[in-house]
Design goal:
Blueprint lengths: L2 H12 L5 H17 L8 H22 L3 H10 L1 H9 L9 H4 L9 H17 L2
Helix pairs in contact: 1-2, 1-3, 1-4, 1-7, 2-4
């Protein structure tokens, strides 16, 4: 899933959980669940950088305004696993550890417009909870 989608779901979860540690754990779990849903992932770092910057500005700002500071912890948990993907993309690490990235858990793949639509629907649903 795109960073913004993971962040939005984390924000929705965090709006209901104010405990920082529980928010981080719930965010991490949400990342694995979302990765199991068939979806499109972008190729290359350029879109990833745009996704991260736009997502960080929009979702975090939206979450702080709507859900409160507790949502930031769940956003952090939900998005942190993709840091390893970015590090691998830039050649800084050579192994992925998060279960849905390493192959330990299923990582759904769905190319084309349908995969993008799944992303959009998931993003919209998450934002509707804020």
């Amino acid at each position: 899933m795109y960073w913004i989608t993971h962040a939005a779901v984390g924000a929705a979860i965090g709006s209901r959980i104010q405990d920082p540690m529980l928010g981080i754990v719930a965010g991490l779990l949400s990342h694995a669940v979302l990765d199991a849903i068939p979806h499109s992932d972008y190729e290359g770092a350029e879109f990833g950088i745009v996704d991260f910057v736009a997502g960080a500005l929009f979702v975090t700002g939206f979450a702080l305004d709507r859900a409160g500071p507790g949502s930031v912890w769940a956003i952090a948990g939900a998005t942190f696993p993709d840091l390893e993907v970015a590090l691998a993309e830039f050649g800084l690490i050579d192994r992925l550890w998060f279960p849905s990235h390493s192959g330990l858990l299923t990582h759904g793949r769905l190319g084309g417009i349908l995969g993008v639509i799944i992303q959009g629907l998931t993003l919209g649903l998450a934002l509707s909870f804020l």
